[in-house]
C-alpha cells in the first residue's frame, strides 16, 4: 500500500501543478474572469507541497522497513544495514534523490505561495505560474522515467546494498542540504521570470527576492562545506577539493547565487542593476539544473556519477532546453524593455559590487568551461581531463582582483565616493598585503598562489571588520553584521586553503609493527594491525600511537574496509584535530614482504577551510534575521499608521493620506 | 530589443546542441578486461552448492569452447539474465558458473527459483578469480576456447539480443 499511496500523492501533486499554471496564467489577464481562477494558484501550490512531502515520507518509510517488493529498496538497501543508513539510502540513488528534489521544490513553492503578500498580484500570478511549470516538468521526469515507487513482480530475497562510500553520516546531511540550496533557487528563478513578464523589476521586488536567495545560498554554502569535508575524510586521498564535475556542479550555482545576492542588494537599496539581477536569477537556477543534468546523464565521467543513464539524460536535457532556453528567450526579447535603473559612478559601493559580480561571473565561466570542455573535445573524439592545473590559475586571475575589491568595496559610499576618503584603510591593507608576502618569502620557498592566498586572507580578515570602524557597535544593523561575518568567513576559508597548500607535510612509508615514523614534529608508531568487523563490513585496522613532541601518545585507528553488500573496498582515514591543523593517517595494502603502506599528512590550519564555510553560512543567517526583522517592524508600523487613520475616520476627523512606507 | 541580450541564449543553445549530440553518441562505459586473448589463470574452486561440482581451469580444456559466467545469487541483473543462460544451454552450450561471495543455501534457492543452466559452479568467496580474470562486477560472461584461452568478455547481463551473438562467437573460436 505504501508505494501505491506515494504514487497517488505524486500524481495528485502533478495535477495540482497544472491547476497552478492555469490559475497563474489567468491571473495575468487581470480581468474579473481571470480573477475567478487566479485565486486557486496559491492553495494549489500549498496542497501540492503537502502531497510531495508526504510522498517522500512514504519512501523513507519503505526504506526504514526494507520493503523489498519495492524495486528501489531492493536495488539500494539491505536488511542488515544500520537503520540510519537505510534512511539515508533513500536519497543515495537517482530516483530517491529526484523525489527529494521534487519534494523540496514543491515545499519552497508552497512556502512562497503561503507567505509572500508584498508583490503586485499580477507579478505573483506570473511567478506562481512559472513555479508550477518548473514543478510540472520534474513531476513528469520522476513519474515517466524514474518512478521511485515501482514494484518488483516478485519481491527480492535480499537487497543489493548501498554503495559503501555513501554509508556515512556525512551523506545523511550533505545531499538534502545541497538540494534545499539548489531548489531554493527555483523560487528566485520564478520570481525573476514573474518580474520580467510583468516588467515589475523594482526595489520592492528585490526585497521580496532577497531572503529567498539568502536562504538558498546559506544551504548551498553549508552543503558544499559538508561535501568538501566528507570527500576529505572519506575518500582517504588527503585532498578537500578535486574539481570533479559533481563538485563543480555544486560550486557553479553557488557562484551565481553569490553574485545574485549582491546584485539583488544593489537593486533593493539603489534601484540599479535591474536586468543584471534578472539575468543572475535565471542563471543561478539554470546552474542547479545544469548540474543535475551533468551528474545524472553520464555525458561527463565522474567519480560521483551514481545514476548514469542516457535516456534520463535526454529527459533532463529536454527540461533544460524548455526552462533555461525559454527563460533566456523571454529575457532576450523582454530585457530591453525594462527601464534602466539608477546610474552610479565607478568608484562607489555599486561600482565595487558590479565589479565583483563580473569577477564572480568570470570565475563561474571558468568553472563552467573547464567542466564542459571534455564534453566539447569528446565530440571530436579527443579525451581530456581538466584538473587543478587549469582551474587554480585561471580562477585565481579573477579571484585576486575580486578579493581586492571585496576588501575595499564595503568601505565605499553608495552612488559616488572618492577613494581619497578611505586613504587610511587603503594604506593599512596595502601594507598588510606586502608584509605578509615578505614574511612568507623569508620563511621559505613557496608557490606564488598559496603565498598570495595567505596575504589576501590576512588583509581580508582585517578589511572585513573595517566597515564597523567609527560606528556605534550597538546600533550596527544585524544585516551588516551578517556581511562582516560572511566576508570574515571568506578570509578564514582562504587562509585554510592557502595554508594547507603551502605548508602540508607528507610521509609515505612501508612499515612493520613496532616501527616509528616522523612527520612535522609528530612521531607515529605502528603498534599493530588487526582485523575488525562492523555490521556490514570487515576491515584491517592499524593501531597507531601518535604523539606531538613530548606529549602523551594518542591511539588512532585508520582502517582499510571491505564491504560485502555490495563488495567494495574503502579507506577510513584517522584524524587528530588540533587548533593549528590536522594529522591525517591512512592505511594502505600489505606488500608481499608483510609491510603495511602507511600514509600520514600534517595539514596546518586545514580545518579553517570548513570553519570559514560555517562562518559564511552564519553571516547569511544573520543577514536573513536582520532583513526579516526590519521587514516585520515596517509591517507593524504600517499597520499602526493605518489603525490610527481608521480611528480618526471613526471619530469623524479628516483622513490623512497614508505615510509612504 | 538589444542584440547583447541574445548572447546568453545563443551560448545556451550551443551547449544544448552539443550535449544533445553527445547523448546520442555511444559511450565506452565498460572497461574491458586485460586478460582477453590470454590463457585462463590456474584456479580450482570448491563447489558453491550441494549437488554440483566445483570449477577448475582443467574443466575448460577438452576442445569445446565453453562459457564462464560470473554471477551471484544476491545480484538482481543475474535474475534478468537467467532465461538467456537457459536459452544458451538449450543450444548445447556448456556454462560453468563462478558464484561470487555467496552462500550454498542462497545459491540453491536461486537455482530453484530461476533455473539451473550450469554444469558446475565454483565458489569464489573472496573474489579472487573474479579479479584475476578482470571482471569488474556481476554478472559478466567470458567465452573460453577449447585450449583454456579467454577469447571474449560480455559485461553486464546477457539480453535476448546478445544470445545469437554469443552463439556466433562460440562457433568462431571453435
From TrEMBL, chain A:
Going by the UniProt record, its keywords in alphabetical order are: Cell inner membrane, Cell membrane, Cytochrome c-type biogenesis, Lyase, Membrane, Transmembrane, Transmembrane helix
What GO molecular functions are on record for this protein?
heme binding; heme transmembrane transporter activity; lyase activity
Q: Which InterPro entries match?
A: CcmF_C, Cyt_c_assembly, Cyt_c_biogenesis, Cyt_c_biogenesis_CcmF
Q: Name one GO cellular component term.
A: plasma membrane
What is the topology of this protein in the membrane according to its UniProt annotation?
Answer: Multi-pass membrane protein
Q: Where is this region: Disordered?
A: 642-661
- Give the protein's biological function: Required for the biogenesis of c-type cytochromes. Possible subunit of a heme lyase.
For this chain, the family text in UniProt reads:
Belongs to the CcmF/CycK/Ccl1/NrfE/CcsA family.
Q: Specify the protein name.
A: Heme lyase CcmF/NrfE family subunit
From TrEMBL, chain B:
Taken from the record, one Pfam family name reads Redoxin
- What is a biological process (GO) this protein takes part in? cytochrome complex assembly
**Keyword field contains Disulfide bond:** yes
Q: State the similarity comment.
A: Belongs to the thioredoxin family. DsbE subfamily.
Task: Domain (Thioredoxin): give its ranges.
Answer: 34-172
Coiled-coil annotation: which residues? none
Q: Which organism is it from?
A: Erythrobacter insulae
Q: What's the domain of life for this entry?
A: Bacteria
Gene3D superfamilies from the UniProt entry: Glutaredoxin (3.40.30.10)
Query: Any idea which UniProt keywords this protein has?
Result: Cytochrome c-type biogenesis, Disulfide bond, Redox-active center
Gene Ontology molecular function terms on file: disulfide oxidoreductase activity
Identification of the protein by name? DsbE family thiol:disulfide interchange protein
**Protein's cellular compartments:** Cell envelope
